[in-house]
Predict the 3D structure of the following.
Amino acid sequence: MPYGEDECTKRLQSKFAQLFETEVTVFPVTTGTAANALALSVVVPPFGAIYCHSSAHINVDECGAPEFYTGGAKLLTIPGSNGKLYAQDLKNAIALSGKGVVHHVQPTAISITQSTEAGTVYSIDEVKQIAEIARNYHLSLHMDGARFANAVVSLGCSPADITWRCGVDMLCFGATKNGAMAAEAVIFFNRDLAQTFGYRRKRSGHLISKMRFLSAQLEAYITNDLWLNNAAHANAMANKLVTGLTNLPGVELCYPVNANEIFIRLPETIIAGLIADGFGFYRWEGEHSTIVRLVTAFDTKAESVDALIKAAYFHSIMVSSDRI
Amino acid sequence: MPYGEDECTKRLQSKFAQLFETEVTVFPVTTGTAANALALSVVVPPFGAIYCHSSAHINVDECGAPEFYTGGAKLLTIPGSNGKLYAQDLKNAIALSGKGVVHHVQPTAISITQSTEAGTVYSIDEVKQIAEIARNYHLSLHMDGARFANAVVSLGCSPADITWRCGVDMLCFGATKNGAMAAEAVIFFNRDLAQTFGYRRKRSGHLISKMRFLSAQLEAYITNDLWLNNAAHANAMANKLVTGLTNLPGVELCYPVNANEIFIRLPETIIAGLIADGFGFYRWEGEHSTIVRLVTAFDTKAESVDALIKAAYFHSIMVSSDRI
Amino acid sequence: MPYGEDECTKRLQSKFAQLFETEVTVFPVTTGTAANALALSVVVPPFGAIYCHSSAHINVDECGAPEFYTGGAKLLTIPGSNGKLYAQDLKNAIALSGKGVVHHVQPTAISITQSTEAGTVYSIDEVKQIAEIARNYHLSLHMDGARFANAVVSLGCSPADITWRCGVDMLCFGATKNGAMAAEAVIFFNRDLAQTFGYRRKRSGHLISKMRFLSAQLEAYITNDLWLNNAAHANAMANKLVTGLTNLPGVELCYPVNANEIFIRLPETIIAGLIADGFGFYRWEGEHSTIVRLVTAFDTKAESVDALIKAAYFHSIMVSSDRI
Amino acid sequence: MPYGEDECTKRLQSKFAQLFETEVTVFPVTTGTAANALALSVVVPPFGAIYCHSSAHINVDECGAPEFYTGGAKLLTIPGSNGKLYAQDLKNAIALSGKGVVHHVQPTAISITQSTEAGTVYSIDEVKQIAEIARNYHLSLHMDGARFANAVVSLGCSPADITWRCGVDMLCFGATKNGAMAAEAVIFFNRDLAQTFGYRRKRSGHLISKMRFLSAQLEAYITNDLWLNNAAHANAMANKLVTGLTNLPGVELCYPVNANEIFIRLPETIIAGLIADGFGFYRWEGEHSTIVRLVTAFDTKAESVDALIKAAYFHSIMVSSDRI
């Protein structure tokens, strides 16, 4: 049966319920951008506002998808150290938002990313404090979990502990970055919110006819802890990489490394050397920046990490000896 | 490289250029609804109008996707026999549309489906006549090719003959219904129109990060005539099915069968009998309708067709003998 | 106080409540298009559908405003004699709409125009029958009352009788065509629906800062039956005009004339003669049509009507004598 | 003739051309929010970005109107002293915007407010520098001129000098705040941009049928320097008020006062005293703020200003004597 009426897709409901230890409503989609924008669109009216961190993927890297799917809602961004939203900053922002005043867009959702775009991880307490703000102001709480697996492994908690038990209403559960071909699941813990999702997914062209090929990825992903094992490996590789690089002189981590992303300032000579060696990565804040992003994945090999560290040492020594 | 910067995706440009005997700009997406809505969105402003047949998929079966992607443009529907738009009807409609008058939505595109939702196929001449109207009124011509392969096989022409050589500006080239997992290609013959497509695709969440898995399907599909062989098989099976069923008393074809879809009125006893036997198909115009749709595919087996025909005969005879 | 916090605007709530003999929530806006589109936008989601007559102003003459304000909902049009929707046709259409099926836009509202675009008036019974369909299918019932005054006068009923007592949820109460400079009132009988209207009005630029100048028009309009007296005059002038013209040979009314609009087929010689005389009106279905629309207003003078009739007689006789 | 086909509306084209010493295309609308959002919508695609100051009216006080009218474009805000955008900050922001990269919204317009939301006025040089950035990056330059008259008076320049001669493409020329009932004019200096405006205005419900009543306000406003005289009076009253208040101890201006708006920190006792006396004004940053906004207008009386100053002195002395 097409359009998600197949057995595999149906099984996902109970499998995810088991994984999250509560009833959920699950919708598979193919991209994280679609997952986030569709999830937000069910709770945010066109005149609504979504609070998020300035660096949030939904704000920076989705070419305005949340605005498109919500019919023109506004993202109100809040800066915060280590890529995180903090409850007190949120509270201050909402207090000045003009809730109930027609001249201003109306707060309706908060979106946080777990793990964050800075490679850090919200603690359970941090999410709970944000959820309390959400509850007090009648806002929905959305979690962009493009790297959710890496966060769960990092926290060593259950998936439930860091989501609905904290007060998260809906989670975009990513699999693509952690091994799938193209598969994300929008998970509603607050199942009342799911009512219009099916129409919105179809209307946006995200209802795959041969859904079984999509659902099969998700089913395999959450079976036998594959998703956690993949993430544990990626996190371990990141840890190995950090340990290696931070021993070098002139190197500085931008944020704590809690998951599989490293933002690190390196001497230009090292960067140039690594690029010449054929390593691929992004300079993070413009083409002349000496901050680079290094991402490890489910399939990163320990030898590759070793090779990068070794190369970095080599270029670092070259600099030192030049100086003599 | 992610997001379509891989070699396979890049190869698609030249492979499709070869297939269509002209330079084209190609964008892979995962669904036909996304392909149609994105393609239309690049040419139709929010205050624009799209002419299409009343039964068009974009009008009936996409939950308003064209309206969503265009920011609220209007589909102006025209009925027409055998599921087709006819040039003269179009001309009459445009003449009354109030072009240039601010009170009315403004004609900007024509959309036709090849093969049509009635299972018929536009002739080259029919498309040329529509394209002439499009040219005269400065409208873009879009072809929904969810079943394009079946039409090309049916016409026995080259893909170019029935598209850009007639005056088609953009084609949604379907592969999913004809063998792919989830793969469609939006093809711009009028390449100037393609400029904003990339942003719109990203913004709608249809830019797949591991694009190579999508492009690989399309590449295989158009290599060694796989797409045509698949469609030829589906068409042959439809032909076989029609021949078998139309020999039965009380049976009436709704439209000529040019491709792989059959709309046929059957005696209720045959329908009920087939359903009881476990055959699956839709009643076409409501739950009490005796018109059914039968679709054959790349993987329909001749034995299955024979079995359906045989079963229909059996139930037909049962009726006759009941009457005696 | 600006933005509707003035005394005059506040008074409108109770004045309209008195007029309609029930509690209402009232929002002044400057145009009928804004009134209709804003009212519909509060009940129709982007994936929703609005049933209306093919000739409805919202469908034909608002350049897609309902689609804009709803975020791309779809107008599903139904033809019907004398410019009216009929309950049975509606019921049939809804039955085939695929309610609950994600592939199809979802019925959420019905919009009727009182008096209609054909110059006819829905009877109380006709509106009740439509409202029953609305209730059964959980649809909102919207009334475009651009010429509401003319309908009330024509029916000789109270404003309440033809609106909320029938089951109308919201009315766009027009004043501009009946004497105001630029003033319409969106009236919610179902007051729960009004919650988001304020934000939507502001967001669309329809919250006038010096609202008192707008509200003052509406207050004067409904005071001392000014609105009804104006409409009664317009209707009487239409009646006088019809009586005069239908005595001529070769003249044919297109619809019964219940209010202040006349659609009438005239011999071309009369049309040409009247135009030459300086009378201004529209040919209704294209530039060669011999159907013309004649509209009378609050300020139409009896002498003007007499003059037109007299001129038509003159041109009619000219034709006859030409024939001799 | 309705819908702007009247003589008065037609005259506006040449009258504004004379006023601005160049050919222009002018569209009257009723509110500043509509003017801004409609103007921006003609140049900014749904995936576009608009640069503006963090405090811009379009960003803070229009309930998301620009997002609505553009189909979900993004406002990228830049802080800047005295309520102004500065060319260098703009340049830096655009350099990091990812122009041409599909993951990011695409810069398409810059919007500045003259006079600014801080009551300051951009110099001709400042606007020229911003326009140069706009030109270099192929962005349109929009000026929100809700208080344009006050700025022109303040600068003592011609309207042309501070708009198209600097490189402004379109101006929302406000009249409502400076004496009109409800009248703003969207003025296109780059007339090519005006092509779709008519459809967008109609579609948003902002095409007034009896346009003459709107146009008449604008005509009167720009005749015999009425607009400049009104603004000169308002500016003079602001100047008088500032002079009076800044003599008081504990008083601090937030920004230079260039036009008719004053943002000033006052001792709480003065604020409380003035409120008790019946003076009306807003505390600017939340209900406990001691920054207040004072706005003078075309009809502010010198006696009223004197009365406020006198009252402030009284409450100021009371504080001092309390301390003794």
About this structure: Residues 8 and 216 of chain C are 6 Å apart (CA to CA). The longest helix of chain C spans residues 302-323.
